Amino acid sequence: MKIKFGRDPMDQYSVPIAEERTGITKIFQIKIRKKSEKPGRTLTVVWDARRPLIKGIVNRYSYLVKFEKRGSLAGNHYHKRKQELFFAVNGDFLITLEDIETKKKEQISLRAKDDKMIFIPSRIAHVVVSTTKNAILLVTATSAGTEADEFTYKFK
């Protein structure tokens, strides 16, 4: 049975509270469900196929990246096809983005306590550095990770 979006009170958690455009990307403020009758826990919707954050983006591959030490990094690459959404599950991160064609560059702090999700378009180089130990990053992507679509990029 197909349920129409917007009829269930839970659907409100699939719609971001706010959307911020940067020079390169978009950052989404995610609405968190906290209920007094369910103390000590929250619910965070990071993907709802009925209401994707970016039109045309389909989550086909999701994974966690665990950063054991402060200063650990991932990335230093870009993808020609793959697009990603980053969500800090635990800890804090500094994300550096650079448009490989225009060389426009920006840095974004992503902290678990802020409940934000960052969109990484294709052809945008990215490096993620943990600024706390035991940090966990959730990545949802339009395709599986493949070496054929991962290109090393040197940030200057």
Overview features:
156 residues; mainly beta; six-stranded antiparallel sheet; five-stranded antiparallel sheet; 13 strands; 44% strand; globular
Q: Mind telling me the C-alpha Rg?
A: 16 Å
- How far apart the termini lie comes to 52 Å
The number of helical elements comes to: 0
Morphology call: globular
Classify the beta-strand content into a percent band: 35-45%
**Strand-pairing-aware structural class:** mainly beta
Q: Strand order, main sheet: write it out.
A: 1-2-10-7-12-5
Descriptive account of the structure:
With 156 residues, the protein is mainly beta. It is built from no helices and 13 strands. It has strands spanning 18-21, 26-29, 32-33, 43-44, 61-67, 73-78, 84-90, 92-99, 105-111, 116-120, 124-130, 135-141, 151-152. The strands form three sheets. It has a six-stranded antiparallel beta sheet with strand order 1-2-10-7-12-5, with no helix packed on it. A five-stranded antiparallel beta sheet has the order 9-8-11-6-13, with no helix packed on it. It starts with 17 loop residues before the first strand and ends with a strand.
